[in-house]
Amino acid sequence: xxxxxxxxxxxxxxxxxxxxxxxxxxxxxxxxxxxxxxxxxxxxxxxxxxxxxxxxxxxxxxxxxxxxxxxxxxxxxxxxxxxxxxxxxxxxxxxxxxxxxxxxxxxxxxxxxxxxxxxxxxxxxxxxxxxxxxxxxxxxxxxxxxxxxxxxxxxxxxxxxxxxxxxxxxxxxxxxxxxxxxxxxxxxxxxxxxxxxxxxxxxxxxxxxxxxxxxxxxxxxxxxxxxxxxxxxxxxxxxxxxxxxxxxxxxxxxxxxxxxxxxxxxxxxxxxxxxxxxxxxxxxxxxxxxxxxxxxxxxxxxxxxxxxxxxxxxxxxxxxxxxx
Length: 324
What we know:
alpha/beta, Rossmann fold, Dihydrodipicolinate Reductase, domain 2, 2 domains, seven-stranded mixed beta sheet, six-stranded parallel beta sheet, 10 helices, globular
């Protein structure tokens, strides 16, 4: 199978390319990037072709593309790939507006190409074990979930609202909302948010607390912030405390680590757990080969974006926002 990557703007592009290069019977045909210096750097690193224009990459005989461009470009790149007949894996958030996300899904369906959303945390081992426990009914009826996704400010275009669509809320909400939907099969019906700009010193939201109600009667809270400073040993966390009628389950997605203290580097964490990228990329490749939807679809991406955008709306209006 022949795969291309559109843009190395997103930090996860490197991990996805590494996973693709490690797969049997998969060829990374090329990398398209409007940042020529960056594109050539990674094309040389991964031993593949560089394309200044993404349309030139789409004009080749590749089967699918991974879109890891700035958030506001997802819509344009996904539509171009769909019209070129290529299957698509798009980085999260799927889009910066609900209308764009809906159009992306509609055009991909019309052109009969698969659209997956890069919800890679579904492939984290502790998260998958938590999913199995819940599917077995060990927790009973789920009453509430408390989640966190607290990261380090990525800087660059992530704090440019025109390119990112927003700050920590749109960046960090979507992963955990997706897990809540995936774990329970329930949909968010109401969102209330308190949002602030505390840590970055920039005019962008960098922290927030979101409260959600679901159509099964469950409610959830989420701390979605860039509250980790530059000296924190890792980029962030994803934790969930799931409360059911039969029990409570706590899951920490990235606790598989060793604390390392050294004179040279100070304190840091060294992860010993397995990477999520190979399983996540393999799911997409397998789905394309089988002609079936990937584990996290474009619809999953849209529903998570809907909650993040409702959080912004709630904060602006100072009132809970109902979802359709």
